[in-house]
Amino acid sequence: MEIRALRYFAAVAETGHMTRAAEQLGIQQPPLSQQIKGLERELGVALFRRHPRGMALTDAGRQFQAEALRMLQDMETVKQRMARVAKGQEGVLSFGFTSSAAAHRFMPDALRAFRRSHPGVELRLRENNAAELTEALAAGRLHCGLLRVPVARPKGLRFEMLLREPVLVAMPRDHRFAGAGEAGAPLSLAQLCEEDMILVRRPGAPGLYADLLALCNAQGLSPRVVAEVDRMMTNLNLVAAGVGLSVVPASMGGVHPHAIRYGPLAGSERLDAPLTLVSREDEDNLPALHFAALLRELAAA
Q1: In contact, 238 and 198? CB cutoff 8 Å
Q2: Closest CA to 286 of 147, 118, 162
Q3: Which of 78, 156, 163, 197 measures 20 to 30 Å from 34, CA to CA?
Q4: Cα–Cα distance, 264 to 217 (Å, whole number)
Q5: Residue 272 DSSP one-character state
Q6: Does the 3-86 domain belong in CATH 1.10.10.10?
């Protein structure tokens, strides 16, 4: 059954007259009459009673009219929705992020702006570490993600640095360096390497903490690493518990203020923490493309 036949039927039912319905539809009467007869043959029932002054619905015709109008309305709803989908105003956006990326005000600001401009898009958010987010993007389970330093660069993914920020040393409040850090005197790498350190990384993978270790090695220093964890919040929980010191993006400097003090690190300009947008090179999801464009625009501003 064609949608056109339903529209023709609805016009004749509304006007009660074949000629007026044809004028309303902008077609000739004979083809309209043939369409109605064909519809009746297809349904196996008479939909109209013909009389000299026009057309009247049969009982079956009245029942079919309700169904036809419902189907036409459903089709119009589908067309309107697909028009929104075609503009990227409706659909699903699967977005992943690391906890350290979420700590930067940039991410909640960006999500708020996107929800305001794309209220019809369903946001599916996932927090994970950089390695697992990258794997999920490469496998097509996410449309895009926001992380710090990439730990892998699979083929087919695009990595764009949006912003950079400095790093800070996180230490327990009762640590012997805490007073100097709070006063603003930078800790040296040599001082840092004298202490137990906690790293957030996948062993053997690149990233912010790989850069830290490389900088230490370049200066002939051997860090005393006591723990390697998957997530930044786990890292800071361990710092708060007194397990050791760590280096974190400056935007995380307000976490556990009752238990952690944050201070500058000498030479940290070589360890700045970026915010990196990861997306698929062949992405065709319009909400994802619009969100990535918004992130670039906000970062540039």
Answers
A1: yes
A2: 118
A3: 78
A4: 20
A5: P
A6: yes
> DSSP secondary structure string, 179-247?
HHHHHTPPBPHHHHHTSEEEEES-TT--SHHHHHHHHHHHTT---EEEEEES-HHHHHHHHHTTS-BEE
Domain 167-271 has CATH 3.40.190.10: yes
Query: What strands, in cross-sheet order, belong to the sheet with 246-249?
Result: 246-249, 167-172, 260-264
CB-CB contact of 220 with 269 (8 Å): no
Closest alpha carbon to 235 in 193, 189, 192, 197 = 197
Q: How many helices (H) and strands (E) does the chain have?
A: 12, 12
Amino acid identity for residue 151 in this structure = V
For the segment 214-245, what is each residue's pLDDT rounded down to a tens digit? 889 989 999 999 999 988 899 999 999 999 99
At residue 31, the 3 state secondary structure works out as helix
How much is the pTM? 0.68
Contact yes or no for 114/296 (Cβ under 8 A)? no
